[in-house]
Fold these 4 entries.
Entry 1:
Amino acid sequence: MSRTDPPLRIRLPEALKVQIQLLAVENRRSMNAEIVARLAASVRQPEASEDNQSAALHEIERLRTELRSAESERSAHAMRLRKLEYDIVATNDSYKELSLRVAALENHEE
């Protein structure tokens, strides 16, 4: 911004003008510099929004990948659990069968 930039006259409500004056003093800027800074920030805002949107889409994709991995892992754990449950049942059946054989042998020896 320089003095060679073309001037622009605007009308402001008095309350807004006072707010801008106070903000300019707070930020150690002229009123003109305060207005220019705020207008520039509001014009750049859509770019920031696009950056935020891009970051959000990237995060969504990362979470989807993580979810797929977790679902795959859960599926593998579920299969392992079913196999262990089957092994337990088979072991119990074998134990019962063995117990019956031992009992039969004991009865046969008597």
Note: The mean pLDDT is 87.
Entry 2:
Amino acid sequence: MLLTHRHETGTPHARSPRTPARRTSRKAHVFFEQFGRRPNLRVAATAARRRFKTWRDERPFWAGLFTFAAGLPIIYFPYAHLKFGAIPLALSTSAGAGSMIIGVLLVALAISLWFHQQVRVFAGIAVILLALVSFPVANLGGLLIGLTSGLIGGSLACAWIPPTAAAESQPAANPASTTLPAGEDHGGT
């Protein structure tokens, strides 16, 4: 379809390349050249997902995530003013500063689990202790959400083994495939 406009004489003619309709088309073309079309976006998304999976597999990711999730409700609930229907529910106590310290420490330990895997055992034990201390100090450990998540995160941190150590410590998968030296008794009668 040819776009036309009327010249001063009143006769229609085709638009020149300098009209706004051409510029928007050119802008869209430059956008796709710079940022790529959809297939390139899929390739980039797949590559980013693989890089994230590799990063996640090299560290106690789930332990850090549970620990991070434990710190948030412990920080939030003492300072939140919740409403249960028309009834205001205030969980503010005199231990607000204690729950803030515990929550911030849990978040800091979660970040250290992600970026400093060498401290995983220390961080795991500290997370478990802070989660247990949050029960009496921080409104039942963030209404048991922070307590439970902290115990799971600390346990996962203590149990995590780096990938290279895990591959070396695994025994042979099929014991029948191991070779036995000739001339040894195989336990028969």
Note: The radius of gyration is 31 Å.
Entry 3:
Amino acid sequence: MRRSLQHRQALAIAVLAIERLPGPLKSASDQSDMKALLDEMIDNNAELAHYARAARIAVIGVEQQAISARSHPTIGNTRV
């Protein structure tokens, strides 16, 4: 079943937010599970890029043009 737009947006933000947590507060297993779920929910690279950009803006507060969704260490490397 395809998840709603809000589910995909929230999941992308959560993955990036976990990445930014300091050492002992970061849950690698939760982040890994969320990445896998996000990968299942997103259909293509363009959609992934959209959610990665939106998550960066929501979590960091700025758009980083130099970082593509595919090169992003958290969200961009979810697909094989």
Note: The two ends are 22 Å apart (CA to CA).
Entry 4:
Amino acid sequence: MNTIKKDLIYTTSLTEIHSEPVIVIDSDYKVTDINSKFLNIIKKKREDIIGTYCYNYFKDSERVKKNCAKLFEIGFFHDEELELVGHNEKDLLYNGFVYKNEKTKNSELVIIGRKIALEKNTTLNFKAS
């Protein structure tokens, strides 16, 4: 098995460990990895997504385009409201961070969704008390 294929298997296993949607993009905003949770929401296959522009999979693609450069510059973001294509609920917030891929020497942005429905319910219950 060649090194590139081993690296892909390794990074894919890291994204698949999350139960929430995960997407990894390069500095050209192209998808380098994506987990099955993300794929299930957008109803696409991994091989159709890898190498395509990440902003195609968010409802507000213009906002995502504008923010990508800023995110690579800043290095991280927290609690960003982003809606995925094919996902009708606003129950996900996204956190992201930039890491340097030591093998390719390129920076990549990892975006991880997390459900906020539980947080909303907890807040509502707290306010009701």
Note: The two ends are 59 Å apart (CA to CA).
